[in-house]
Model the fold of this input.
Amino acid sequence: MRMRNKYRKSTTLRCNAGSRCSLPVLVWTLVGFLLMLHLYTLISQNSIPNKDIRNGISQNPLLRELEEVEEENLQMPPPRKRSPRAAKRKPKKATTLIDEFLDESSQIRHIFFPSIKMAVDPMKDAGNDSLYYYPGRIWLDTEGNPIQAHGGGILYDERSGTYYWYGEYKDGPTYHAHKKGAARVDVIGVGCYSSKDLWTWKNEGIVLAAEEENETHDLHKSNVLERPKVIYNDNTKKYVMWMHIDDTNYTKASIGVAISDSPTGPFDYLYSKRPHGFDSRDMTIFKDDDGVAYLIYSSEDNSELHVGPLDRDYLNVTPVVRRILVGQHREAPALFKHDGTYYMITSGCTGWAPNEALAHAAESIMGPWETMGNPCIGGNKIFRQTTFFAQSTFVLPLPGFKGSFIFMADRWNPADLRDSRYVWLPMTVGGAADQPFDYSFGFPLWSRVSIYWHKRWRLPGRGSG
Ligand code: DGJ
Done:
C-alpha cells in the first residue's frame, strides 16, 4: 500500500480561476520573462543616441572625429648584439614591450618619451598645430618650461572662468633612497598652472611648498607628497587641497589637507592623518552636485578602496566609510559622474610601471561599485593593456558635451621622474558595456566608458577643421 506523506509539499500551485499550474511551468515562464527583459535592455541600450560609440558612430559630428581611433604599430626592436662572454655570464631574458618602456637605453625609447624637439609649445605651435594635444610629448608652459603637474587634477574656478591644474612638482633629481626602494624625487611642492583653453598653461608657481629644514614636518623634502587635488568649498569660500602624504618607505600612508583663500595659493598645510584609522595611499576627492565631497583612497595595503563623505568644511572625513572593490588591488582612482551614475577609472598596483586600467560604475557613490572592464580603445593590444603606457589621475568633464570627458593620465618615467609625460585623451560614456557585472545577473545596467587613443587630437569644436 502506498503511504501518503503528509509532509510532502505539493509541486502544483493554484493559478487563477482554479486552474492548476506546475512549479516548473512557473519557473520557465519566469526564465522566459527574464530573457525577454534582457533582450529588450540590450536593444534599447543600442538604440540610444550614442549608439555604437565604440565604433565611432556618435550622433554628434563634433565628437565623431574623437571616436575614430588610431592604430599603433609597435614592434619589439631586434635583440641587441652582446659579446659571447656577456651572453655566457648572464643569458638575456626575453623582454616585453613593458621592459622596453622601462629600459632607459631602449632603441624604441623615443616612441614612449619623444625628445624635447617634439615638445608641444602653445606659444609657438600656431596654425595647423594649434590646440592639439600630443599624448606623451613634453608639454611646455607659457614660459617655455615643461609643465610640472604630475599625478594632478583640475579645478574649474567659476568665479574667474579659469581652469587650474595642480600636480606634483617633480623637477629634481631621481634617486633611490634604498637599494630596493621605489625611484623618488624629493618633495618640492604642489605646482599650479592656469588656463582658459585647457591647452595654454601659465605657471602660477608652487602653491604648497616643501619644508627644507624641519625633518619632522610632513612636507619635509625626504617624504612623499603625491596626487594633490583641489576643490572649492561654497560654505567657507576656501580652496581645499587633499593629497597623499607618506614617508620615504610609504609606511605613513596618510592623507594631508591644506587650504587657501585663492586658487593660486599659498595653501596653508593643516595636518595629516590616517582617514577612518586606515592606511591610505593613492587617493582622490570628488565634489558631488549637491556640494557633498568624498574621499576615495586605496587601503588595506592597496587591496581595496574606501569611500566616505567629507565634513561640511571639507577639512576632515566623517565617521561614515564603505569598503569597495574589495580584494581587487586597485589604485590611482579618478572619479566622475554622468547622468546620475558614478564612474571611476583605476589602475593596478605596479609602482611606476604601467598596467591595465579598469572602469567601474555605481548608482550610489558609497557603492556597491561594479567593475566593467578595460575602457581603452585603439592603439594596439599592448597600448590597451598598459593604459597607453600611463596611469589614471583625473577625469575632467567637457562643458557643453554631455557624456564627454578628458581622461588625464601620467606616463611615469621612473628613470627620471621629472620627465614623466601627460597622456590626455578623449573619453565618452555611452553604448552597452561589454561584460556582465558582478551583481547584475548579466543585465547591462550601465553604459560603457571608452577612452580613445589618438596620436594627436583637439577638443571638439576647436579650430576650423
Ligand atoms: C603608484 C602610484 O599610483 C603613484 O602615485 C606612486 O605612488 C607610485 N606607485 C610609487 O611607486
The chain has one domain: 59-68+95-452. The longest strand covers residues 421-432. Residues 151, 182, 226-227, 282, 331-332, 351-352, 391 surround DGJ (CB under 6 Å). The chain has a mean pLDDT of 88.
